[in-house]
């Protein structure tokens, strides 16, 4: 497991797969990177994609600050940008569930050049008064899989929930995005209706509804992966027949049409050259004085349950005695 220091806070992440485009997998509330492994996503996707699987701030092995200022949407998205910069990655696909849907949409909207295809499930990607009212009713788990969750971990989750109650609302605004976006929800998910409302304010976004529950949709793996794979590898479109390119004579001789120049002007493929990688020193950070990875105790595992349309499987949380 690798680590990156951004603004004095450590985010741990794993990298899986050796070929294909990069994909960020972001877990749900009270979950961790372990959720993607235990549900089978990593095993299914690693042969085709290179996966970046972080522990979001306040979860898993990443830092657990108790200051709610550490859990603003810009801060959570900026942690992902720092991870990408540290790896020299220009952009990546994104698959997020629950809390990951909110972080993923903020990343897509404010860093459009860093996100290619975005698949979000289990929560509205936009913040609304209705969503914040639901989040206030969530109970912080005290145990997972029969093991007690540490007081440090519970305090961090309390700060996160408090911060979420203060996130600015953006449901009523039009939120145009440039990259392909699909939002998925289960029919029995408490977040179903607010996810539908959100999609209506996002041009180019699509909504897909599935049978089952919030946790059940995540556990099925196939629906999310199938939608992601279809968007990441769209079927080729039939091209209409084209007239032969006409060459025109000018004062300096013949010149070709502009056709095909899009390919010539396309940005270079990632990764970025070393000279352009900025992840080793970000604004506000102090990375040169921090270790790249600090050993931390292995998190416990267990089921915290899915609540309010935000949580993942609740695996991989810190436990105490």
Question: Features of this protein?
Answer:
disordered C terminus, globular, 10 helices, Rossmann fold, alpha/beta, single chain, 321 residues
How are the SSEs placed, and which strands pair?
Layout lengths: L1 E5 L2 E8 L5 E5 L7 H6 L1 H5 L4 E5 L18 H15 L4 E6 L1 H12 L4 E7 L7 H7 L7 E2 L2 E2 L2 H14 L16 E6 L5 H9 L4 E6 L3 H7 L1 H11 L15 E3 L2 E3 L5 H5 L56
Parallel strand pairs: 3-4, 3-5, 5-6, 6-9, 9-10
Antiparallel strand pairs: 1-2, 2-4, 7-8, 11-12
Helix pairs in contact: 3-4
Give an account of the 3D structure.
By secondary structure, the protein is α/β, with parallel strands linked by helices. The chain has one domain (2-234, 271-289): 3-Layer(aba) Sandwich (Rossmann fold). 28% of the residues lie in helices and 18% in strands. It has helices spanning 34-39, 41-45, 73-87, 99-110, 129-135, 151-164, 192-200, 214-220, 222-232, 261-265, and strands at residues 2-6, 9-16, 22-26, 50-54, 92-97, 115-121, 143-144, 147-148, 181-186, 205-210, 248-250, 253-255. The chain has an 8-stranded mixed beta sheet with strand order 1-2-4-3-5-6-9-10, with helices on both faces. The chain has a two-stranded antiparallel sheet with strand order 7-8. A two-stranded antiparallel sheet has the order 11-12. Helix 3 packs across helix 4 (99-110). The longest helix has 15 residues, at 73-87.
């Amino acid at each position: 497991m690798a680590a990156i220091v951004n603004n004095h806070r450590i985010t741990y992440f794993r990298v899986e797969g050796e070929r294909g485009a990069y994909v960020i997998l972001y877990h749900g509330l009270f979950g961790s990177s372990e959720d993607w492994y235990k549900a089978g996503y990593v095993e299914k996707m690693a042969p085709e994609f290179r996966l970046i699987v972080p522990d979001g701030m306040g979860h898993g092995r990443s830092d657990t600050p108790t200051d709610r200022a550490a859990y603003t949407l810009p801060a959570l998205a900026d942690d992902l940008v720092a991870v990408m910069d540290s790896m020299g990655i220009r952009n990546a696909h994104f698959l997020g569930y629950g809390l990951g849907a909110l972080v993923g949409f903020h990343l897509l909207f404010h860093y459009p050049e860093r996100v290619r295809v975005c698949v979000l499930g289990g929560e509205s990607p936009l913040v609304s008064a209705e969503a914040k009212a639901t989040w206030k009713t969530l109970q912080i788990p005290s145990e997972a899989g029969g093991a007690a969750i540490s007081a440090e971990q519970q305090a961090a989750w309390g700060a996160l929930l408090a911060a979420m109650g203060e996130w600015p609302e953006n449901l009523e605004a039009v939120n145009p995005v440039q990259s392909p976006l699909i939002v998925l929800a289960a029919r029995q998910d408490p977040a179903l209706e607010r996810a539908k409302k959100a999609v209506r304010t996002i041009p180019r976004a699509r909504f897909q509804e599935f049978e089952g529950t919030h946790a059940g949709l995540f556990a099925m793996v196939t629906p999310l992966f199938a939608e992601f794979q279809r968007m990441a590898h769209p079927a080729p479109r039939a091209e209409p027949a084209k007239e032969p390119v006409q060459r025109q004579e000018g004062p300096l001789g013949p010149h070709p049409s502009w056709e095909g120049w899009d390919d010539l002007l396309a940005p270079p493929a990632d990764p970025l050259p070393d000279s352009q990688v900025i992840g080793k020193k970000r604004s506000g950070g102090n990375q040169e004085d921090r270790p790249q990875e600090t050993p931390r105790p292995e998190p416990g595992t267990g089921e915290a349950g899915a609540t309010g349309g935000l949580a993942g499987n609740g695996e991989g949380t810190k436990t105490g005695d």
